[in-house]
Amino acid sequence: MKMISIVKKNKLLALVALAYLVLLIISPEMAKKSVGNSLYYLLEMFQVLPVIFLFTVVIDALVPKAMIMQGFGEKSGFKGNVLALLLGSISAGPIYAAFPISKSLLSKGASVSNIVIILSAWAVIKVPMLANEAKFLGVDFMLVRWILTVIAILFMAYITRLIVKKKDLPDDRQTKATLEIKEEYCIGCALCVKLLPQFYAMDSNKAVVIKMPEKIKDFQAIQRTVDKCPSKAIILDEEHVS
């Protein structure tokens, strides 16, 4: 039973192990080669990811949010697009290393379109790759391909910004914000309960808090109830939002 429970919790890993087992039975040589390739990429991840995670910590702790918003935010305009293109182009490491960095930048105020540009540039127009491309395929080929790719990246970033909104993206940042209802101000309209029953309830014709906010998305939802409260009885302390 314990083994079944472990498998259910790690379905993807179990499927990979099963695939290796089937491959081992069908073609031992191919299985050996596959395991070797997997070990190679795992070793690469263990070498790269610690550096990337350290970089994300630096972004979160030392880089001011205002600086990120100015350089890569919604109002950064074409300058932000160019900076995002440069950041992605001069990056090092495999593309999966870009995801935690992009998430950190996004949480600090970078726009969706600039994140798309960073990821796309990181994947297909990194400077070391361009140098190799020019060496093997020629400078003319590299330049034409680079120009067309940049145009495609900018167009893709614009389309993504129209379709994907920042509020729809997962946000697992934690918050220590406190939620309080001033009993003497509450008129018992129950509007907050109707809007967010997971945070509010009625007790003796007064609204009470039954759960504190834990994530940024909670804070954003609760702020709407603060704004809509007719007696302004809901107090949300945003001093400690991370």
Could you characterize what this model shows?
The protein is mostly helical. It has three domains: 2-59, no CATH class; 63-168, no CATH class; 178-237, Alpha-Beta Plaits (2-Layer Sandwich), CATH 3.30.70.20. Helix content is 65%, strand content 7%. The protein is built from eleven helices and four strands; from the N terminus they run H-H-H-H-H-H-H-H-H-E-H-E-E-H-E. The strands form two sheets. A two-stranded antiparallel sheet has the order 1-4. Helix 5 runs parallel beside helix 7 (112-124), helix 6 (98-107) runs antiparallel to helix 7 and helix 7 runs antiparallel to helix 9. The chain starts with a helix and ends in a 5-residue tail after the last strand.
